[in-house]
Amino acid sequence: MATMQSPTIVNPTVLIPVDPAIEAYMRSLAGQTDHPVLTEMEAIAKENNFPIVGRLVGVFLETLAKTVNARRIFEFGSGYGYSAYWFAKAVGANGQVICTDGDPLNKEKAEQYLRSADLSERVDFRAGLAQEIFAQTEGPFDICYNDVDKGDYPEVWQIAKDRIRPGGLYIADNVLWHGRVAVEKYVDIVPGWTEAILEHNQLIFNDPEFDAFINPTRDGVVVARKKTHDNIDK
Question: pLDDT digit string (tens) for 210-232?
Fold first, then answer.
């Protein structure tokens, strides 16, 4: 019996997890009407080729946060606040999203956008290295969200996983890395980043304290739920 071989694709952009027509249909269901600031943020991303999670993943993040009744969220890597927009909507007036980004200009832009959306009071945006800022915070989080430089993914998982409450979530973007994780030959954006994502994903799925799944939408979003005491051995 013939064995299945992994595809060899030099250009990973041809390996699209979800057919574009399907994603277009999903976007039509998600709708295109929302606060004007959201549309502006999406337009700026398209104009400047700035990586944001986009509408489908944004709705997904908001739904996940509402599902676990999240009130305290930490973002490792926030850009100019696009993902924070969705999380801030979910946590409610008494919730908090701690955002981080190495570029002070992104912090400034994010605060302007979130203020325009009446969400700024729910967000604490700090400029600097996400891992260092995380170490300066206290207590557990309902969600830790990872979207930093991909070479740092394994490190972020290791420091975040023990600070997630039972039943809480670890979420990371770009875990399919434009298909590179599934092919034998690829050209990496930064040497070592694909290997780091592969290590990161393996660490998550091998951790007995978490249940994990990858949503292949856009560039792949991993969601890992920390088990509670009643299902730790299941």
Answer: 999 999 999 999 999 999 977 65
Q: How many CB atoms lie within 10 A of CB 192?
A: 10
Q: Per the structure block, which two tokens stand in for 31?
A: 């709708």
Domain ranges of the chain: 12-231
pTM as predicted: 0.91
SS (H, E, C) 80-108: CCHHHHHHHHHHCCCCEEEEEECCHHHHH
Name the maximum alpha-carbon separation found in the chain: 61
Query: Given this structure, which CATH class describes domain 12-231?
Result: alpha beta
- Report the Cα 214 to chain-centroid distance in Å: 11
Long-range contacts of 67-70 (CB under 8 A, 24+ apart): 68/142, 68/143, 68/167, 68/168, 68/169, 68/225, 69/142, 70/95, 70/142, 70/143, 70/168, 70/169
List the one residue out of 202, 96, 197, 80 whose CA is nearest residue 143: 96
Q: Distance (Å, rounded) from C-alpha 229 to C-alpha 75?
A: 26
The Cα-based distances of 57 to 38, 104, 131 in angstroms read 13, 25, 23
Torsion region of 186: left, alpha or beta (phi above 0 gives left; psi -120 to 50 gives alpha): beta
β-pairing verdict for 141-146 and 164-173: parallel
pLDDT, tens digit, 9 for 90 and up, residues 65-79: 999 999 999 999 999
Residue 221, token pair as written in the block: 């979003």
Measure the CA–CA gap between 216 and 228, rounded to whole angstroms: 26
Share of the chain above pLDDT 90, in %: 82
